[in-house]
Design brief:
Elements: H1 8-11, E1 26-27, H2 32-35, E2 43-44, E3 48-52, H3 56-70, E4 74-79, H4 88-92, E5 101-105, H5 109-122, E6 125-131, H6 137-150, E7 153-157, E8 168-174, E9 182-190, E10 196-203, E11 208-215
Parallel strand pairs: 3-7, 3-8, 4-5, 4-6, 6-7
Antiparallel strand pairs: 1-2, 8-9, 9-10, 10-11
Helix pairs in contact: 5-6
Length: 217
Amino acid sequence: MSSSLYPSSVVGRRDARLSPPEDRALVSLGTADLDAFLPWGGLPSDGLHEVCGNGAFGWAAALAGRALAERQGDMFFLRPPSLFGLYPPGLQRFGITPDRVLIGEAKAEKERLWALEEALRSGCFAAVLAVADSRDLTVSRRLHLAAEAGESMALLLCRTGGASAALTRWDVAPIAGDGKPRWRVSLQRCRGGRPAEFIAGWEHDALRLYPTALLGD
């Protein structure tokens, strides 16, 4: 009996690969079903990923939690001073404890992008999460190269659209329910792979994401 959460007919449609994937360091999303949406068989831990939508912070926190679960190192969160503060109990449900988080602030987005690039290139962090909207192809390429050099996962909270060198772009909406994190996820861009839409939740005890439904054809 297959251990997949999906029927075999659905699994057959989830082959994300369009071309042979690059050889990269990977972090599992938590289940083989979710990893199969990505052409690498997991999420690259040394590159740029963009996250947008109303559920962007929760999804990015889940991805950062997966990175911290599988790698040594801390998380750096870079934000504008006016943005919401972090809620420690909320982060701990993703396995992100206060002793593994460093918070930085910069009012001007140009300064945040500079600090983001430096943090990524330093190699000191397993994941770097930042808020920045005015990125373009050149900026995103610099961030991606810095993430590769420092072997860090760059998670950029931004508006959707626009040219980008990011490995993936996710558009995420939260789903109300029983208090457990769940999201409607659209993988809009995936280098070497296909777009996908699905619903996923977070399992606190196992510190992993899991799929609950595949959307679309």
